[in-house]
User: Which sequence fits this backbone?
């Protein structure tokens, strides 16, 4: 008989996923086999199986709900309900057909939450927005005291917006605070600003906030509780906020002292968030805790390059698409400028002595839609981006035109040690040959399980990224 210390919970947890949630093959076959070995291992296996529940299809949800209804004790084990992979595609059903089957509906989802009272993370998304009614939302906000993370990614139907607004309205005259720390409202663009002005001040422990492409305003942003400690903030493509309001918030609000991930991107075809003066105010005030910064669409001029330079000494990701920078400006992030001819040593004051060069920490840079960055300019001797000296740089994101040109240069790419990779609408030029001893690889604690560079959606729970969350994080 195996003793319990030979197969501890940590080892059993490694068996928990052997088939991707998007597949149709039986999952966790090895883990389920552990149920038949011994009583001790059976208990550890049950804890692992039911701690994190992933639901890719309505039939699996029905089986899970039936099981926890029959054995309510299993529901108390559940810490995460992950519906980020949920879809009816591949089962030959439409959304309407799924609703007629009555496997996953607002009523069954509410029943599921009732049976999982200790749940800490609930991951929802747009394929379920018609089923996220007011009763479900009331349960999430007020009926699950241990809930710490909830994601409503891309939920935008009219019924969802009306239910959300109604559920949050109950907080207007109520002094209570909520225990949610990580909130995902990415692409929930139908929610009115009043929702944010009511909800955000009542999240005193907030650490992750994704409100990309929503109707949040400057006043709602400023209403975030001062006791919050934001490490992740995504304001990408929010057209109702202003550059001045955002910079005021980022330079004065106490909640952003420990910021790690910040997305201020915009679609310049519709709206520009940050103009020259905003950029000049913002860059010197950003905290040195910042690791990922997205300024795509900001009006960045060549005179901003010296303000960006100090950030490259602690950032690992920098996105500056559409910036008005030259190749020389971008080179300056990776190598010291040649000192100008200077007077004799006796005439140079200590303050004028050149400072020691600190190498860049950038692993990823987005240079899409920068006119100076083309396939010929990348290959030219005047550009240092592809040289070994820019390590740890390993990923350069580029626009369609540059990627198309690079795709045709197979032999040159091979000689240089770089390769073209594409996913969805995005394209990257990736270093395929790294200098000896280089610290490369995309796994970072602040990504919470995401492996690639350049994520555009904030994670709210630790785990491998896939399904609809993967689409919004890396493909779009």
Assistant:
């Amino acid at each position: 008989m195996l003793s319990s210390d030979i197969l501890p919970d940590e080892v059993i947890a490694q068996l928990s996923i052997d088939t991707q949630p998007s597949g149709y093959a039986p999952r966790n076959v090895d883990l389920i086999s552990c149920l038949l070995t011994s009583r001790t291992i059976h208990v550890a296996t049950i804890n692992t199986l039911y701690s994190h529940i992933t639901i890719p299809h309505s039939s699996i949800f029905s089986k899970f709900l039936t099981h926890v209804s029959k054995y309510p004790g299993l529901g108390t084990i559940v810490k995460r309900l992950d519906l980020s992979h949920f879809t009816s595609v591949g089962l030959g059903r439409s959304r309407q057909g799924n609703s007629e089957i009555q496997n996953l509906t607002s009523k069954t989802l509410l029943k599921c939450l009732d049976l999982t009272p200790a749940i800490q993370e609930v991951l929802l998304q747009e394929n379920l927005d018609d089923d996220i009614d007011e009763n479900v939302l009331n349960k999430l906000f007020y009926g699950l005291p241990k809930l710490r993370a909830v994601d409503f990614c891309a939920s935008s139907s009219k019924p969802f917006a009306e239910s959300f607004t109604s559920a949050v309205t109950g907080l207007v005259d109520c002094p209570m605070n909520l225990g949610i720390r990580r909130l995902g409202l990415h692409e929930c663009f139908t929610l009115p600003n009043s929702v944010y002005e009511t909800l955000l001040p009542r999240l005193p422990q907030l650490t992750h906030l994704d409100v990309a492409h929503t109707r949040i305003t400057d006043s709602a942003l400023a209403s975030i509780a001062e006791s919050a400690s934001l490490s992740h903030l995504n304001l990408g493509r929010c057209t109702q906020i202003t550059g001045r309001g955002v910079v005021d918030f980022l330079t004065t609000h106490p909640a952003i002292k420990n910021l790690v991930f910040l997305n201020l991107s915009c679609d310049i075809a519709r709206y520009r968030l940050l103009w020259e003066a905003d950029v000049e105010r913002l860059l010197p005030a950003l905290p040195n805790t910042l690791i990922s910064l997205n300024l795509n669409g900001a009006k960045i001029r060549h005179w901003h390059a010296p303000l960006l330079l100090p950030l490259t000494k602690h950032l690992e990701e920098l996105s500056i698409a559409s910036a008005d920078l030259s190749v020389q400006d971008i080179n300056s992030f990776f190598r010291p400028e040649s000192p100008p001819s200077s007077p004799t040593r006796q005439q140079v004051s200590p303050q004028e002595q050149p400072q020691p060069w600190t190498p860049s920490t950038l692993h990823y840079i987005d240079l899409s839609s920068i006119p100076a960055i083309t396939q010929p300019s990348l290959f030219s001797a005047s550009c240092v981006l592809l040289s070994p000296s820019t390590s740890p740089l390993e990923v350069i994101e580029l626009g369609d035109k540059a990627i198309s040109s690079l795709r045709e240069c197979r032999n040159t790419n091979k000689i240089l040690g770089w390769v073209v990779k594409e996913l969805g609408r995005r394209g990257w030029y990736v270093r395929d040959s790294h200098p000896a001893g280089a610290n490369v690889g995309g796994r970072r604690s602040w990504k919470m399980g995401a492996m690639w560079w350049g994520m555009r959606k904030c994670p709210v729970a630790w785990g491998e990224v896939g399904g609809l969350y993967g689409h919004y994080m890396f493909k779009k």
In short: The CA atoms of residues 136 and 380 lie 58 Å apart. The chain is about 30% helix and 10% strand.
